[in-house]
Structure formats: C-alpha cells, structure tokens
Design goal:
Layout: E1 8-12, H1 21-33, E2 37-41, E3 53-56, H2 60-67, H3 76-90, E4 92-98, E5 104-108, E6 112-115, H4 128-141, H5 146-160
Parallel strand pairs: 1-2, 2-3, 3-4
Antiparallel strand pairs: 4-5, 5-6
Helix pairs in contact: 4-5
C-alpha cells in the first residue's frame, strides 16, 4: 500500500454539527505535525475554533458574526484592522475576506491588499465561497503569494456566479 500525504486540507464548515471544536483541534494538530496546508471557510458557531491555520476565508457576514462586530464592507481601513487582529490573535497566516460586489481583502504579514470586484453579470451566488476557498488554498499551497491567490480566487468566484446553480469552472 502506498501512502501519500495530502498537500492541503480544507474545512468547509456548513455549521451542520459534524465539525466540533474537539474534532477541529485534533485535525489541525495532525495537519500541523505533518506540515499539511490547512484552509477554512468558517461559519459563526466554530469561527473562533480555527487557530494555527494557513488560510481563513470568511465572507463579510461570517466575519461580522464570528467577531461579533458591526462592519461596513465599504470601510476598508476598519476591515484591515479587524482582519489583522483576527490573524494575530489566532495564529492565522492569511485571511481572505470576500466582500460580495465590493471585491475582497487579503491580509498576510508579508502583504495585504484590497482587491476590487470584477464587473460580472451575476446569475446565482451558489458555490462562490466554495470556489474561492478551493482556488485560494490551491494557490497558497503551491507557493503563490497571498495577493495572487486572492486575485485568482476572487476572479474564479465571480465566474461561477455567472451561471445558475453550483457549477465548476470550465477550461475554455
């Protein structure tokens, strides 16, 4: 039997009760021990249980609920301050917050940047968050810069919003 170590693990937390704080901590510990890149798309309930990870990707609603604060998605300076605090307090390498039609903001100790949204013909936002976390995790796990990962994942998230339903990104 050949054993291969995964390059990355993504917690896609839908708040359905499967991911408990005990399970989250145990899986993160195993990933850290084995140097597996760990990314999280959080929900309110477990928001503060994700510590010592490589990537946290909340949307604005999840950030507000998880941090229990009122934030305006147009106030980039305040968003930057809150994200930096979140990253430092929880030992999170990169935080990528999606801001719907306003774009995204990425924070990392090396670089931080606001990324405006690409103008799109939005049909359905279903699956956009899943697309963003998967593309960002892939990019970062492969060594891309946080801004490059955020740019590509923000673009990919916009592409899937142009079609109705949960869709994948097509090659063409």
């Amino acid at each position: 039997i050949t054993r291969e170590k995964p390059a990355a693990l993504i917690f896609e937390d839908y708040n359905k009760g499967v991911l408990t704080s005990k399970l989250i901590s145990a899986v993160i510990a195993v990933c850290r021990k084995n140097k597996v890149f760990t990314a999280v798309d959080p929900k309110k309930k477990n928001f503060n249980h994700y510590k010592h990870i490589a990537l946290l990707k909340p949307n604005m609603k999840e950030l507000r609920e998880g941090m229990k604060i009122d934030l305006d998605k147009g106030n980039i300076n305040e968003i930057s301050r809150v994200i930096k605090q979140l990253a430092e307090e929880n030992d999170i390498e990169t935080v990528l917050v999606t801001l719907s039609e306003k774009g995204a903001y990425v924070y990392n100790k090396k670089e931080s940047q606001y990324l405006p949204a690409y103008i799109r013909n939005i049909a359905d936002v279903s699956g956009a968050g899943d697309t963003v976390i998967s593309v960002a995790a892939l990019c970062l796990a492969c060594g891309a810069s946080p801004v490059t990962a955020a740019t590509l994942s923000n673009f990919a998230g916009g592409i899937v919003c142009e079609k109705v339903g949960v869709v994948s990104i097509e090659k063409s």
